Every structure is written in C-alpha cells, then in structure tokens.
Amino acid sequence: MHFSIPETESRSGDSGGSAYVAYNIHVNGVLHCRVRYSQLLGLHEQLRKEYGANVLPAFPPKKLFSLTPAEVEQRREQLEKYMQAVRQDPLLGSSETFNSFLRRAQQETQQVPTEEVSLEVLLSNGQKVLINVLTSDQTEDVLEAVAAKLDLPDDLIGYFSLFLVREKEDGAFSFVRKLQEFELPYVSVTSLRSQEYKIVLRKSYWDSAYDDDVMENRVGLNLLYAQTVSDIERGWILVTKEQHRQLKSLQEKVSKKEFLRLAQTLRHYGYLRFDACVADFPEKDCPVVVSAGNSELSLQLRLPGQQLREGSFRVTRMRCWRVTSSVPLPSGSTSSPGRGRGEVRLELAFEYLMSKDRLQWVTITSPQAIMMSICLQSMVDELMVKKSGGSIRKCGLSSERMLRRRVGGTLRRSDSQQAVKSPPLLVSITSSSEPWLSSKLSAVSLRGIGSPSTDASASDVHGNFAFEGIGDEDL
C-alpha cells in the first residue's frame, strides 16, 4: 500500500472554535481519511507504549507557536514519511492499533454512521452476492460474510480476497487494489460516489499448486471454475484453437476438475491483467499490456503487422522495485504545494538481473503501478512462505472472531446461502504467444550481487527477499 499526505487543509474547529490544520491521508492516490496532528501524535504514543520507542520511526515534534506555511509543509512531509515507515514495518503495519486507527478515521472522515446495510459483492463471472454487513465491518468481516453466503468453509477463506475494481464500459474489470485490513469495504466503495466501482471476490494466491486444496471443496471448485472461464473469455488466459475446442468439450460435459487441469497448463493461467500502459523496455514509450502471475511480470506488445511478442520478468531476478508518483504543475503555474496540480503520474520501476552481474532498471508507467507493486510483494511473500515450508491455508476463525459474529445477523452459517452459477459455454477466443526474453536469460546465482543502486533512497525501495533467498534451482 502506498500512503501519502499530498496536501493539508485549514479547517474551522467545532462550534466556531479556532482553525486547525488537517492532513489528508491518501491510500493509492485516493483520499482515505482526514486527521489532525494531535490524532497522529496519539497514535504514535499508543504505538510507543505497546512496542517501545526504539521500534518506531521519528515523529515530528510539537511546536509551541503557530506554524508558518513553510513549517506546515515540512511537517506534512515528515508525517507522510512516518506513516509510510509504520505501514511498511511488518510488526507496526499489521498491528491492530494502527489498523483500527485508520478504520475509525476513515469512518469519521466520510461521516458514515454505524448501521446495518446491504453490500453487493461480485464474483469473477459477474454473479452478484448480496450480503448484510455493518458499515463499520472491516475487510475480513466482509470476506467472512461472503464466504458464509456461498457456504465456503472457514479453512478456505484465506485462499480468497476482496478487490476494489472499476467496471469499464465493455464490462471488463480494471483492478484498483486489494482491500486491506485498515479499511472498511462499504465505506471504501461508497465514498468513491460512482457506480463504476465494485467489490469483487477472486482467489488471492499465485501458485496453481494451491488449487488442489480449493478444488477439494464443491464451492471452492465452482469459484475457481467460474473465475477461469471468465479469464478465458476476457482473453487473459492465452489459448490456441485446439485448446479452446478441448476446453469447450469439457465444459459441455460439466467436467470442472478436468477443465481446470487443462487450464492450468495454459499460458497466463491465474494471472491478473492490467490496463494497457507504457514501458521503457524494449524501447522508450513502448505500448504494453502487463500481466502478473506465476512469479513474474509479463509484458505483451504488438509489433508492426499485429504480431504479438511477450517479455517475462521473473520476480526472483528483481533486485528491488519502487513506485514513484509525480503531479506536474500546469505550465507557468506558481501554485503552492498540493494546489492546482494536474493528474498524478505513477511509475513502477524494478531493477532486473538481465544477465550475470548486469542489473538494469525497467520502468512501467501506469495508473495501476501501485497494484502491480502489491502483486510483486504478494508473489515474493508466497515464494518465501513456500520455501520455509509454511502454508497459506487458514486454520479457521479465532475464538475472538467467532464471538464477534453477530447473533441473528447474516454471518451465521445457517443463513440463506447462494450457489455459484455455472458460466455459459465458452465463446471462440484464440491467442498466440511467443517467448521473447525469459528464454534468453541464463540461470545465475542471485547471491552476493550487492546493494541496490543509488538511483533511489532506501525508504523508496521495496527490497526483494526472494532475490537472495531463492537459489538457482528455483529459477
């Protein structure tokens, strides 16, 4: 997640009290909440009490007198760095203290009272699942409500996630972000004030080996099947005419497991595709379509004559990556910071091991750059869990969360359930793909390459534990 405080606001106090400076906290470029310095100071003090001062990043000190405009801007920058550092810390960023603070602030900023509401969640095939939740329910609460509605077992909930998407005119989904533990899904989607934005349930893992766990259950099998059919119809999964014929035959026979087994062998199975964007590889300003999956980023482009080419960048060869944002001022503008700016330009840049001892930065310019970065991090996390012998299987709900389920509410397993509908038969879709980059890169040791390049400061860079933690045999 990318936290930023791009601007401040001067606001009047309650009941005509003295004015104060409010800090607008943005998550992935979208306003999440508006807070005062004193609230952030209270969060800092609580975190220090729980984890100790030596764990926390520096917090901007109090001032005895009113701040000048320059000091306000300096404090804004310091608070932004503080929030980013806390979020990126594995201990602090996952703490209930930090996440509950952001949830409360989001609800207060959007002025949404706590009440029971209906919330619509879509499956990958467009099927609607209507659930009753509280406006104050966090992401995990909503995910559990969807699972209960579909009769998905508790131990399979961890294999799925909720995503915020924007539905385009052609019905395709443009993925905005994965909903996080620090936000309230109902508030997140309604605060955007547009019918284009939806919440979608989709599998959250990358390694198709985990499909075996999910397919043991009828509901899990149906969810995977519906998602795969949808991905093929959208052209996300690349199929030949013969493969398409075989898939359609299996679909007609309702052989869902066999259908998925064949789909697992196809290029881009289980990948997440992003909107068309621009990269500086293989040349500057090259139009590409980026997909994430199978521990790689895939860049597809069409050459003259409509010939499709694909470059694959393995996550284990990425030394590090960073997301940068810039908001160019209009020509001739002298606007103050955070005012009168144009549209935010986001870039994902990663340092890639092109050949032995040769690292090169590759930059992708896309409004979905942050989502791409999140995908990279989750692929690295999954690789490291697998390497350590761990599992992503969820062992059921904790006793605390079981007690939080509302008696008489919609989270009980006995409530009315909804079946996953079988998708219509596949329409004819054909694609071709030719290996381009990955086959030309020889497997080399990733140990001892050195520290990241000095092009970016350490606070801007996501270090990749899989780069040094995954050996040659895994490449």
TrEMBL record:
Residues 115-206 form the Ras-associating domain. InterPro entries: PH-like_dom_sf, PX_dom, PX_dom_sf, RA_dom, SNX17-31_FERM_F1, SNX17-31_FERM_F2, SNX17/31_FERM, SNX17_FERM-like_dom. CDD domains: FERM-like_C_SNX17, FERM_F1_SNX17, PX_SNX17_31. GO terms for biological process: aorta development; cardiac septum development; coronary vasculature development; endocytic recycling; intracellular protein transport; kidney development; receptor-mediated endocytosis; signal transduction. It is a peripheral membrane protein. Residues 1-109 form the PX domain. Keywords: Cytoplasm, Cytoplasmic vesicle, Endosome, Lipid-binding, Membrane, Protein transport, Transport. It comes from the Eukaryota. The keyword Transmembrane helix does not apply. GO terms for cellular component: cytosol; early endosome; endosome membrane; Golgi apparatus; protein-containing complex. It is found in: Cytoplasmic vesicle membrane; Early endosome. One of its GO terms (molecular function) is phosphatidylinositol binding. SUPFAM superfamilies: PX domain. Transmembrane segments: none annotated. Monomer. Interacts with APP (via cytoplasmic YXNPXY motif). Interacts with KIF1B. Interacts with the C-termini of P-selectin, PTC, LDLR, VLDLR, LRP1 and LRP8. Interacts with KRIT1 (via N-terminus). Interacts with HRAS. Interacts with ITGB1 and ITGB5 (via NPxY motif). Interacts with CCDC22 and CCDC93; the interaction associates SNX17 with the CCC complex. Interacts (via C-terminus) with VPS26C and VPS35L; the interactions are direct and associate SNX17 with the retriever complex. Belongs to the sorting nexin family. Critical regulator of endosomal recycling of numerous surface proteins, including integrins, signaling receptor and channels. Binds to NPxY sequences in the cytoplasmic tails of target cargos. Associates with retriever and CCC complexes to prevent lysosomal degradation and promote cell surface recycling of numerous cargos such as integrins ITGB1, ITGB5 and their associated alpha subunits. Also required for maintenance of normal cell surface levels of APP and LRP1. Interacts with membranes containing phosphatidylinositol 3-phosphate (PtdIns(3P)). This is Sorting nexin-17. It comes from Mandrillus leucophaeus (Drill).
